[in-house]
């Protein structure tokens, strides 16, 4: 399959000229037949290429269910509650959320209308089996967000996998990286920016890139945030992803950029050129998220920022510490306690992953998950 994707990319370059990195990623990751995400129902976990909070076990979904229940209560329980997961993969996270909701609050569970959004046909097909115990809760499964949502739209590690533009500052100004050919070999080549939006993006953040610094600009993330906010009639937008405020991600700390590729849980180095150019269609390609631009875009499209904080603080505020304290001495309980710690440990998922919560037409005190320290580390 990698040869199919590579052939498509080579043909596109020969017909139309060099591709932006964003165009390259779109084909490598999201081609409807041969793309990395399109060909498999799930890419995470022990047998996948990377590890997410969902792979730790059902606790992450159970904690989210607690927060979603409070959001439902905040919306005055008026009718059904849309639960929309974007980047839903095979439906494992939604399954964990629904299992917990059914076990803890039948009224909340009864109100849920689940909408699953994923670009991969294989993932959408797998959702039917995964969510069979909750089949009557599934209102839709498709590639795009519903037009109108009364409830919550949530996504776990979605924005970091969207196609990005790669740029570098030179003595002569900003340049963009393109994917080109040297014979039959895919190479990276710098040229003039493909769109003025790249310079406008960095200028709006007052970014001062020094010559030699390279970085990514995720225009697709801003488009997605705008669509999500416009679809949200009333309710919440909750995002979990890894990233940094603009002042950090566009600084000397990340002067080499954050674009990377993972194979079997390891960042894959390359002896010749960027590793993400190799074997397109067979590997994940990802970059860190600019949290500042995500927040600004959400506010621009009518949502208010309710909180931006480390995942660890969010889950502890939701009661994960109590779960740790009540775990018993059995082998199974010890494994569960270790899994719970994985979600909050500093230096791991607890601090590398951030939670962003936005609201539309929402009033009242802070949500439970935002009631503790609201810190970014």
Short description:
With 377 residues, the chain is of the alpha/beta class.
Number of helices: 14
Count of the separate structural domains: 2
Task: Estimate the strand proportion.
Answer: 15-25%
- The N- to C-terminal Cα distance equals 40 Å
- At the fold tier of CATH, the topology name of the largest domain is Rossmann fold
Please bin the fraction of helical residues. Answer: 25-40%
CATH architecture of the largest domain: 3-Layer(aba) Sandwich
Radius of gyration, in angstroms, nearest whole number:
21 Å
Order of helices and strands: HEHHEHHEHEEEEEHEHEHEEEEHEHHHHE
Low-confidence parts lasting 5 or more residues at pLDDT below 50?
Answer: 44-49, 264-268
What's the average pLDDT? Answer: 89
The biggest sheet amounts to: 8 strands, mixed
Number of strands: 16
Which structural class best describes the helix and strand composition?
alpha/beta
| CATH class descriptor of the largest domain | Alpha Beta
How would you describe the shape? globular
Task: Describe this protein's structure.
There is one protein chain. The protein has 377 residues and is of the alpha/beta class. It has 2 domains: 2-35 and 163-219 and 251-286, no CATH class; 53-156 and 226-242 and 289-370, Rossmann fold, CATH 3.40.50.12710. Helix content is 36%, strand content 25%. The chain is built from 14 helices and 16 strands. Strands 2, 3, 4, 5, 10, 14, 15 and 16 form an 8-stranded mixed β-sheet that branches. Strands 1, 6, 7, 8 and 9 form a 5-stranded antiparallel β-sheet that branches. Strand 11 (260-263) and strand 12 form a beta hairpin. Helix 3 (59-74) packs across helix 4 (92-104) and helix 8 runs parallel beside helix 10 (291-300). It is globular. The relative contact order is 0.14.
């Amino acid at each position: 399959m990698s040869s199919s994707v590579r052939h498509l990319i080579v043909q596109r370059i020969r017909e139309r000229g060099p591709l932006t990195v964003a165009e390259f990623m779109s084909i490598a990751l999201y081609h409807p037949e041969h793309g990395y995400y399109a060909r498999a129902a799930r890419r995470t976990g022990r047998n996948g290429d990377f590890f997410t909070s969902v792979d730790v076990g059902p606790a992450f979904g159970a904690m989210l269910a607690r927060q979603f229940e409070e959001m439902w209560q905040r919306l005055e329980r008026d009718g059904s509650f849309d639960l929309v997961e974007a980047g839903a993969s095979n439906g494992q996270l939604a399954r964990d959320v629904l299992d917990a909701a059914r076990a803890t609050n039948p009224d909340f569970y009864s109100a849920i209308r689940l909408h699953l959004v994923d670009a991969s046909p294989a993932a959408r097909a797998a959702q039917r089996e995964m969510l069979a115990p909750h089949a009557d809760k599934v209102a839709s499964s498709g590639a795009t967000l519903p037009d109108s949502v009364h409830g919550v739209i949530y996504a776990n590690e979605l924005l970091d996998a969207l196609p990005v533009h790669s740029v570098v500052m030179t003595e002569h100004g900003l340049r963009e990286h393109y994917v080109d050919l040297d014979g039959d070999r895919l190479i990276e080549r710098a040229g003039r920016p493909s769109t003025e939006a790249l310079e406008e993006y960095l200028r709006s953040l007052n970014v001062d890139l020094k010559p030699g610094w390279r970085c990514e600009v995720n225009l697709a993330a801003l488009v997605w945030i705008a669509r999500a906010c416009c679809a949200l009639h009333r309710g919440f937008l909750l995002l979990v992803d890894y990233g940094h405020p603009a002042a950090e991600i566009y600084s000397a700390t990340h002067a080499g950029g954050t674009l990377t590729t993972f194979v079997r849980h390891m960042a894959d180095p390359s002896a010749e050129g960027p590793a993400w150019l190799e074997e397109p269609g067979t590997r994940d390609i990802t970059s860190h998220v600019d949290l500042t631009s995500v927040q600004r875009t959400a506010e621009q499209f009518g949502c208010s920022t309710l909180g931006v904080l480390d995942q660890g603080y969010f889950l502890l505020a939701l009661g994960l510490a109590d779960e740790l304290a009540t775990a018993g001495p059995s082998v199974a309980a010890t494994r569960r306690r270790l899994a719970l710690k994985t979600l909050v440990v500093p230096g791991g998922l607890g601090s590398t992953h951030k939670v962003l919560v936005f609201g539309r037409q929402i009033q009242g005190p802070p949500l439970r998950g935002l009631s503790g320290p609201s810190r970014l580390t």
